[in-house]
Task: structure prediction
Amino acid sequence: MRLYGLTGGIASGKSTAARFFAERGVPIIDADHLARELVEPGRSALLEIVQRWPGVVDAGGRLDRKALAGVVFADPEKRLALESILHPQIRAETLRRAKELESTGHVYALYEAALILETGTEGLLDGVILVSASPATQRARLAQRNDLLPEDAERRMAAQLPLEEKRQRSRWILENDGSKESLRESVIALDAELRGIGP
Result:
């Protein structure tokens, strides 16, 4: 079984593309879901985070994700420190799950993560699919969300590689400045291509 990366900047449509692949029976290993599991109470990643930033847990001992984001996205060094805690554990769990999927008969699976190229994870994968949207499209989509302040969105966009570099380092590009239906059609075509690639 091959493992491909699926990535894209904030509000690029990566999660929507992942949903379309999943509808076609492609297993998705979601880095965000893994990260949430790894910071459950009692897990070693949460203990490391709390040692470094004691104020990011609530009264029940659970991670306050909004408080943590406020700390790490305001300071590049703190963001890198968080990534050094989480990314090795996410990588190990991804490889473990991919190994489990090998016996299920799937041709390929996708590892969905925002920072594949930023963390050098592409070296563990059989290729990277980029969901690409222009910065103008990203900002327009972010403006429609009510869970993120504009300055927080800009900080998150700035924390990611420039779009052109991502495009150069990706094997496949799904253009997503148009409609969801257009993205779905692109996913259907790429799924057919990936299923046809030999072992």
Summary: The longest helix spans residues 76-101. The CA atoms of residues 22 and 28 lie 7 Å apart. The mean pLDDT is 90.
